[in-house]
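Shape matters. As here.
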Amino acid sequence: MNVRRSATALAALAALCTAAAPAAFADASPSPKPSGPALPKGLYGTKDPRFDGVWRQSLALLAQDAVGVTPAKSAIDWLAGQQCEDGGFAGYRANTAKACDPKKGEFTDATAAAVQALAAVGGRGSAVEKGVAWLKKHQNDDGGWGMNPGGPSDANSTSAAVGAFAATGTDPKGVKSAKGGKTPYDLLLGLQLGCDAKKGERGAFAYTADKSGAGAAANDLATAAAALATQGKGFVFEPAGKDDGKAPEPLHCGAGKGDGKGGGGKPAGVEEAGQAAAAYLADTMAEHGRHLLSSMPGAKDQPDFGGTADAIIALAAGEHSATAAKPLQWLQSEKNGALAWAKGDPGALGKLVLAAHAAGADPRSFGGVDLVQRLNATGPKPESVSASGSGADSGKDADGEKKDDDKGGVGGVWWTVGVFMVAGIGIGFLLSGRKKQQL
């Protein structure tokens, strides 16, 4: 079985969510509403949280904080209360009095996302420190992280961990494995495809190391996650405010081009690796009509909205907002389906808000929709909304759309999207079209 099939097979184990944990996946599609006990008051969204509760909550808080919204205390309390005694996070804990299973019940991606969210909103220093310590404790000898502690290192989980360190002021380059002294970038750069790969895959990242002998295959979701990590950034960062309009620098191969300045036809270092990954993403989206395609097994050639949002964030992190503009415009078009995909889903809405914010666009005017107001409506009322935010007098209804004076607002309707998409990150992330594993 080649690497692509192994990664996508894992993805089939999960029902989406959000859309990114990473990283990106078919990322945040909603699951059916749970038939059990009522959901916690502080939790965002109404779908079954067993797979993505922590993930979608983290994305929602990150997105709100990025655009000047102060989340409700109950929402922050709920996320912090999900932390296991040892500092890690599971996908969702219905009963927090029950101890976590440190080998199977805790996830790198969930922990990394929660650390970023709690660090952003502030006031939870102890929880953040415990989460960072958990990540350091479970770093593999090769410098990376797997979905679960001790699992094979993969690009998505490793990139999520890098984001957590970056968000807490820790230089990822200084985080070294206890045995071997390897950094996260040692693992990531080893997964990047070089000049010996097919022309259209050069600069992309594989999901995990190939041990079958068939050769590593490019994985779009892994590439989007790694492209962000090589910039030393997490899900949220301030837009660069500068962009010379130049496309990302692709990996140069062949006579007169150095044919692999880093050896084996690969980039020479982290910066070059990030540029090559960004160039791959830009070319791939252009080829498919300004978006990434779903890589789920058996899926038709259909857009991956979460993965596309992840790619936009990665391009913007590398100061290529001009290159990110076209896929961002594509997401904003109602006819392409991204708005319908995200409607009512806090993880997906959070991802779109973060993509718009990263690229310097206004998430309050996203294809005629106020994404911030839509996101706020999926959870407890925020403590406050910035002056530029969408409040009760914004002229828009609770769904973020302009009010019809004859019909009035529709109030606080919570929408759910009836698409049960499988995505990826395992834990409940699905952050971006990865693998989802039952807790």
